[in-house]
Automatic annotation (TrEMBL):
Top-level taxon: Eukaryota
Galactosyltransferase N-terminal domain ranges (all copies): 19-125
GO biological process: carbohydrate metabolic process; glycosphingolipid biosynthetic process
Organism: Daphnia sinensis
A GO MF label: N-acetyl-beta-glucosaminyl-derivative 4-beta-N-acetylgalactosaminyltransferase activity
PANTHER family the UniProt entry points to: BETA-1,4-GALACTOSYLTRANSFERASE, BETA-1,4-N-ACETYLGALACTOSAMINYLTRANSFERASE
Annotated family: Belongs to the glycosyltransferase 7 family.
Residues covered by the Galactosyltransferase C-terminal domain: 131-213
Record SUPFAM superfamilies: Nucleotide-diphospho-sugar transferases
One CC-aspect GO term: membrane
Claim: Transmembrane is one of the keywords in the record: yes
Pathway: Protein modification; protein glycosylation
Protein name according to UniProt: Beta-1,4-N-acetylgalactosaminyltransferase bre-4
Amino acid sequence: MIASDSRKENEKAFISRMSTMGLRPGGNYKPENCVSRNKVALIVPYRRRKFHLKIFLRYMHPFLQRQQLQYVVFIIEQSNGSPFNRGMLMNIGYQEALKLGSFECFIFHDVDLLPEDDRNPYTCPEKGRPRQMAYSIDIFDYRQTPKQHLGGVSAFTVNDFQLINGFSNLFWGWGSEDDDLYRRVLHHNLTVTRITDDEPSFGNIVRYRMIDHRKENSNPDRDLLLNGWKYRLVNDGLSNLSYIKLHVKLTPLFTHVLADIRQNPLTSG
């Protein structure tokens, strides 16, 4: 009981401190002493990761504020009933964010990844050049992931994400929705960039730490779906996104979107 009360007091103290720093309801922040060149929507897919979410929010708000960014944090939660669908939740976050405000870019961010260095830019990428960010992670001994990897944390301008029709909606369970995304990017003649492209020594700047978690169940159809990526470009993504919005709430630290998505013949391949 004492420990629980202490946690609640710590949470209240953090919310109060963030409010003093200028964080508004919905996880909405705008620097007071400068005009930010970037207005960023941070989209975080989520389900049953309360411990991770608390760590993520406590870490990321100060991190983003030190970069003097104008940003909003969106937590897109999937209700129970179907296997987790990361790609669809990213698409939902994109659409719901644009209903609430205008943004120059979107950073799609897993809840279990934390950037280690303040110099890792969470600014908007150039048009036509989406940025892969989480490719050097502690659990892989910071070895850089293959060039075709576009998962974990990635940044897109609004126009580029719309152009590629967002993520596929068909990847239920863990795996390959980011590989599908990479193929969409290349198909539309966009260039995936990394901070190390022009300066290899910056590799130490873009390191991430992964919070321990239980591995999700793999998608048994992921290889078959991935092989057919080109045939689904137009009709699978933002263009056919279907979900039931249960609520949108502005909490002190984030905008919470709760959505019900169902696996049915139209969204299961």
